[in-house]
């Protein structure tokens, strides 16, 4: 197990490339679209190739923009070194069917703050589009910082500019531009909230500046993506003596996916390295763990005693214990 999940069917209604590496997918759920709030996401079952066959893996994608009662819009970054989900999503064609969850939200927008700073890193812009639209419509004081590798990778720039006007600032890495969190936080009034969605190094920098500015960590709300580790993904070996298991996790597959395929009962919820439900005990590691979660503390990560199997990877070989007990 396992997260309680009810699945419904949706059809791919339209495809649109919003940057050279980000494809927007419009889905039409067969039973109609539920309303969703900014920060919401869908889980979906994606067929990931496994040798000559394909198996369903669960992936999570933020919902973009405002609900219309008919369609859901998500966007998928093409990751050649990802866990296989993005490649499968990029192969979808109009008319294809897939199984999706109802909208869920672990990144809800609190509308009571005196001011907001939205921070996006690359594809992390997706949950923030709806937030910017809702906040701008309410005339809430909101600014947005948007970091990307190149100008062409600023997805949804036009709709964001149209609601945020000059309260949107971009930082283009290939031009040598970076977000100066210390300077940006100095402009933010007390009790303001920051909503950030981006890779782990961006979150680390933001969290450091936020703490140094004396702001409560509870006012920094974030989502990350588990694709951003310290090392490029490579295949690794996993043993679980309790299950007599000895498998290789391929470079383009996730550890949790492989454990599920091997029928190892594993708890999970977010599958994004945030909730900690999937953390397993490490019995030994021969090599290094690339901790890609934001749940374990720095000390826990340094001790290598637990690993969040939904996103983290290994360089070398690891021996784990599962929560399964025969009695
Ligand atoms: S399932 Fe939430 S951290 Fe892994």
Work out the helix count. 7
Shape: globular
Strands of the biggest beta sheet: in what spatial order? Answer: 4-3-6-1-2-5
What pattern of helices and strands is seen along the backbone?
Answer: EEEEEHEEHEHEHEHEEEHEHEE
CATH topology of the largest domain: Rossmann fold
Classify the secondary structure makeup into a structural class: alpha/beta
Task: Kindly provide the name of the CATH class of the largest domain.
Answer: Alpha Beta
Low-confidence stretches: none
Q: Alpha-carbon distance between the termini? A: 17 Å
- Main sheet makeup: 6 strands, antiparallel
Bound ions, cofactors and other small molecules, one mention each = FE2/S2 (inorganic) cluster
Radius of gyration: 20 Å
Strand composition percent? 25-35%
Number of strands: 16
Q: Averaged pLDDT, please?
A: 90
